[in-house]
Design goal:
Keywords: Hydrolase, Metal-binding, Zinc. By secondary structure, this protein is an alpha+beta fold. The chain has one domain: Cytidine Deaminase, domain 2. It has four helices and five strands, in the order αββαβαββα. It has a five-stranded mixed sheet. Strand 3, helix 3 and strand 4 form a beta-alpha-beta unit. Bound molecules: zinc ion (ZN). Zinc ion binds next to helix 3.
Length: 133
Amino acid sequence: MSILIAKTFAYVPYSKFRVGAALLTEDGEIIKGANIENASYGGTICAERTAFVKAVSEGKRKFVALAVTTDVATPIAPCGMCRQVIREFCSLDMPILLAAFSYLEKEDGVRETTLGEILPFSFGPEDLERDRG
Ligand SMILES: [Zn+2]
């Protein structure tokens, strides 16, 4: 249910497109995030990044799952920038649940994927440790 609650406080005066994210920490805590728009559109922060920024700024860096939902009838995946932020803190096989608006009522309302599936051939923190020519 946290996933539905997460989008409650979305601030979306421009797009009217609410997104909620629920990030499950290794110790079982759920960190919620909502998208926060800005009149200077580039200042907008997605729900997924809101959840990560909240968690990491409170000392939580180990996550085991992420769920994302919107008001759309089909599951929607995180944007490219959020995928890269997820990559910073999560393993490629971490489950990501994409929940449609009415996911509780539809058999195919939740699409389960992984970070590796939605961000193939990715760049991550370990790449900065590689030998340089
Ligand atoms: Zn995003």
